[in-house]
Amino acid sequence: MTVKDNLVRFGGVPEHFNAPFQRLLQRQAKEDPAAEGPQLAWRTYPGGSGAMLNAVISKEVDCACVLTESAVAHIIKNSGEDAKDRVKILGTYVASPLVWGVHASARRPADSDSNIFGISRMGSGSHIMAQVDNDNAEGNLRFKVVNSLDGAVESMAKGEIDYFMWEVFTTKHLVDKGEWKLVRKVPAPWPAFVFVVSHDISADRLAAIKEVVISVHREIERMLKDL
């Protein structure tokens, strides 16, 4: 196995959930770069699950840490044997549920009845959870694609959207500095993240991915011991 061949390309969002991958990258950098065996290569996707699913389909990455709801929605949508964009779930990465926050501008008028939700893309976690949220179930929801958290910040400031649902710790800095307000928290009724791979991934590549996943779990164990 050459140095190039032993790189296993993972993708994930730029959030704290993926700290174990960053720790593994740091550990690899301290070791022999020519070491045999699968080595982690990492790519960040601010665009979220939609961008990562596209990366898996195009073979830009071998495996991605995708929101469970987005992965399942994509698999259902592309379930036909003739579908070109099929993927499959390899296993669970984060078993605990993601806690979403419904956010609004801190300057939003209390009597406003506008109900436009910013979403990263149609079928994304931010789109699905806006519909899952019981407080929105009876509402006349409208959506605007903002692509990413940065896009949501810009659209919220311009008054183009009224709400945006995202993981509460990732948006905490916006709430703390008074730019956004947290309206309510909505825990997802399923595990947060799963590992997603292409439906036609080779057995050798799959074995290499599993070895890297084992190394990531070892980093998690080390992090827990450091607490």
UniProtKB/TrEMBL annotation:
Coiled coil feature spans: none
Every Ca3427-like PBP domain range: 112-183
Location(s) in or outside the cell: Periplasm
Parts of the chain that traverse the membrane: none
Domain of life of the native organism: Eukaryota
Thylakoid in keyword set: no
Swiss-Prot/TrEMBL keywords: Signal
Gene3D superfamilies: Periplasmic binding protein-like II (3.40.190.10)
Keyword Protease: no
Family label: Belongs to the bacterial solute-binding protein SsuA/TauA family.
Protein name, entry field: Ca3427-like PBP 2 domain-containing protein
Lineage, broadest ranks: Eukaryota, Sar, Alveolata, Perkinsozoa, Perkinsea
